[in-house]
Every structure is written in C-alpha cells, then in structure tokens.
Specification:
By secondary structure, the protein is an alpha/beta fold. It has helices at residues 2-23, 25-52, 143-146, 156-170, 177-180, 183-203, 207-218, 222-234, 240-264, 268-283, 286-289, 294-299, 303-317, 344-351, 354-373, 380-394, and strands spanning 58-60, 62-65, 68-71, 93-94, 96-99, 105-108, 117-118, 126-127, 131-133. A hairpin with a 5-residue loop joins strand 5 and strand 6 (105-108). Helix 2 packs antiparallel against helix 8 (222-234), helix 2 packs antiparallel against helix 10 and helix 4 runs parallel beside helix 7 (207-218). It folds into two domains: 2-56 and 141-342, Growth Hormone, Chain: A; 58-133, no CATH class. The strands form three sheets. A five-stranded mixed β-sheet has the order 3-2-5-6-7, with no helix packed on it. A two-stranded antiparallel sheet has the order 1-9. The chain has a two-stranded antiparallel sheet with strand order 4-8.
Length: 395
C-alpha cells in the first residue's frame, strides 16, 4: 500500500508539470531558449578562440645589412636583391646581407644556402624579432598576429586554448553547488562570471592576463551542466527530450555562427565583442525571467517560495486553477526518504574509494599538464631524432 501511495504522490508533481506544459507551450519554449543561450556561448568561447589563433603565412620583417639590423621594408623596393633570393624563406632568422663593391646586395653564407650566396664570414644566423604577416598589409587582425605566436612563441597558440580547457576541467568540482545553493543561483553566477571575463578579454593587452581570464572563463562550465538540469526540472517528462536537444541545437548554431562572425568581421577583438553582445542579450533576462527550480525548492523545504514560483508559472501559462489540485505539504518531494533504500553514495564509494578517486584525478591532471606544456613530454631522444630528420629533409 505504501508503494502504491508513493507512486500516486509522484504523479502529482509530474501531472502538474504536464498540465502546465500543455497549457502554456510558449512559456516552456521561452525559458528553454533563454537557458540554451549558455550552450551557444560555450561554443563561441571555444571555436572563436580557435579561429583567432589560427596560423597564417609570415616571414621575418628584419634583415642584417652590413652588421646592422634594419627593417626589410626599408630596402625591399630600393635595392637590387641577390639572384634567387626571397624573403619568404626566412621565417625565424634574419637574412644577412652586405653591399658589394658595385653596390649590389649579396647574401652571406651563414644565412641560407641560396645560389647567390658568397662565403664571406662564418657568423651564425640571428633570431628574428619582428614579422610580416601575409597578405601585407593583412586583411584581418588575429591574436596570432597581435601576439606574434610564431617560431619560439608558437606554443602560445595551444597554451591559450589549454588554459580555457584546464579551467573547465577544474570547474567540475563546483557542480554539486547546484544541489546546495540552488539551480538558478549557480547558473546565473557562473554564466555572469564567464561573460564578465570575456568582456575583459576585449580590452586587455597583456597576453599573460589574457590567459588568466581565459582560465577563469573555464570556470563558467557548470552553468552549461546546470542549465540542462534546470530545463528538465521545469518541463514535463513528455517534453524533456525535445527541449533538452534544443540545448545542443544552439551549440551547433554557436559553432556555425563562430565561422560566420569570423568571416564577416576581421578584427578578433570585435569578433569577441559581437559574441558577447549576442549572448549578453539573453543573459540580461536570466535574473528577472528564469525561475528557480520548484522541484529543488520542494526537496529543500522551501514550500512557500516554490508555491509562489509555481503560481507565477501557472499565471503565465494560463492555468491558474491547476495549482489547486497539487498538495504542497504532502508529496513525494517533501516526504523524508526511505531509510531502508540503499544510498547511491554508498554504492559509489564501494567501487571508487576516495583515495582511488584522488589518485586517478592527480595522475590524469599530471599527464594532461605534461603532455600539453612540455614540447617533448615523453621521450627527449625521440624529439631530437625527429628534429634531426626534419633538418636533413629541409637541407
């Protein structure tokens, strides 16, 4: 008899959600679309960053002329170049030129093995410190160009993406906050943290601070998880599938929209500003429009607040009388749990003890850190052999 009564009690809340969802489809679609903007913003964060750090052709913008460093642009059109000489072949080192007795330029042997090379001195090649990106002048301006992510700084392309993903990895520890302080509180807090740091990225010039902000942006990931949970708790069971899929439809829209933004807007800071503006329109409505989960409120004993929210939802959906059929004091969400029922935490702890979980987490983060930040993470000799073979191929 107790099992039958429990089943009937569970139907009370689900039946209430079903009637609300049927009476006011506009309400559930508005709420779902607003919450799904978080998923679209997550796509913007990842894919626009990939596009603005993409590599483009470049060459050294300096030369060494008669032992003095001068810009390549100062002599590119005012002097006769050596035969078979092209500045495009000098990427990470400066070409060393000298003026011959007839005033023509010659390439020293230490620079490159071109046909016009003259053995003059054995001076090692000097590293380049400025670059020209092609086409010149560039038709777009990216982070790759602004922060010169070339040659010895090429690792920065992966590093800045890694900082974002590392923040997402560490943000998983904040997931349980949704059960402690509420779904809406976590969703709004982490969503606003993400977009605040993203807006700051637009104005920050220092690359180190850029990476710190990207790392903090990664901590907004719990908003994506909580948004899915909040949708399932605000929509009836019969509609959860289609509304849950809308989250990932907007993610795909953000994915394709990132390419469209990058195609039509050529400055990476403006691209970021447009992405923030699109997401910000929806984010501005989170506090006044999106309700807290009534299911969570009832399980936590906030019956009056849950009743107030459900009244507003029913009023918006045009089904005020439905709320009279629901018992706020006695239902499956407010009754104490059965003590004889095995707890999920006990089963989880049996197979995954705390020390094992901590050990695997530490090992995973160590492997992730080493493989990402080290140019030769596992075998130094293997890296050296690869460098040697690549040098042989180039020569």
């Amino acid at each position: 008899f107790s099992m039958l009564s429990t089943a009937l009690e569970k139907m009370q809340y689900e039946e209430l959600l079903t009637k609300i969802s049927k009476s006011g489809p506009c309400y559930r679609w508005v709420i779902t679309n607003l919450i799904a903007i978080i998923s679209m913003k997550a796509a913007f964060d990842m894919f626009i960053l990939n596009l603005v750090t993409a590599s483009v052709p470049f060459h050294c913008a300096e030369i060494t002329l008669d032992n003095q460093t001068v810009p390549w642009s100062s002599i590119a059109h005012n002097a006769s170049m050596p035969d078979n000489f092209t500045i495009n072949s000098f990427i990470c080192s400066r070409p060393r030129l000298f003026r011959d007795s007839d005033g023509s330029l010659r390439l020293e042997s230490s620079s490159e093995g071109n046909a016009s090379t003259v053995n003059r001195t054995s001076v090692p090649a000097e590293a380049c410190s400025a670059w020209t990106f092609l086409p010149d002048p560039p038709t777009r301006w990216t982070m790759f160009m602004e922060y010169s992510m070339v040659c010895e700084r090429q690792y920065l392309m992966d590093r800045i993406q890694t900082m974002l993903q590392f923040g997402i990895c560490l943000s998983t520890v904040f997931g349980p906050l949704g059960d402690i302080i509420g779904r809406k509180t976590v969703l709004v807090g982490f969503a606003y943290l993400d977009i605040s740091c993203n807006i700051a990225v637009i104005f920050v010039q220092d690359l180190t601070l850029q990476m710190v902000l990207r790392f903090i942006m990664g901590f907004g990931a719990p908003a994506v998880i909580i948004s899915t949970i909040l949708i399932t708790e605000l929509v009836a069971e019969d509609y959860r599938g289609i509304h849950g899929n809308l989250m990932w439809i907007l993610f795909c829209l953000g994915y394709s929209g990132s390419a469209a933004i990058s195609y039509f807007i050529h400055n990476w800071r403006v691209q970021t500003a447009v992405a923030c503006a699109i997401a910000g329109v929806g984010y501005a409505t989170f506090i006044p429009v999106i309700p807290e989960s009534p299911r969570w409120l009832l399980t936590r004993g906030y019956t009056k607040r849950a009743k107030k929210i459900l009244k507003e939802i029913c009023k918006f959906s045009g089904c005020k009388e439905v709320l009279n059929e629901f018992n706020f004091e006695h239902n499956e969400l407010v009754e104490p749990p059965d003590e004889n029922k095995p707890q999920r935490r006990t089963v989880f702890s049996k197979f995954f003890p705390g020390r094992t979980y901590a050990g695997w987490s530490t090992l995973s983060l160590s492997v992730y850190y080493r493989s990402t930040f080290s140019p030769c993470p596992w075998s130094t000799s293997l890296c050296r052999s690869r460098e040697t073979s690549s040098q042989k191929i180039s020569t």
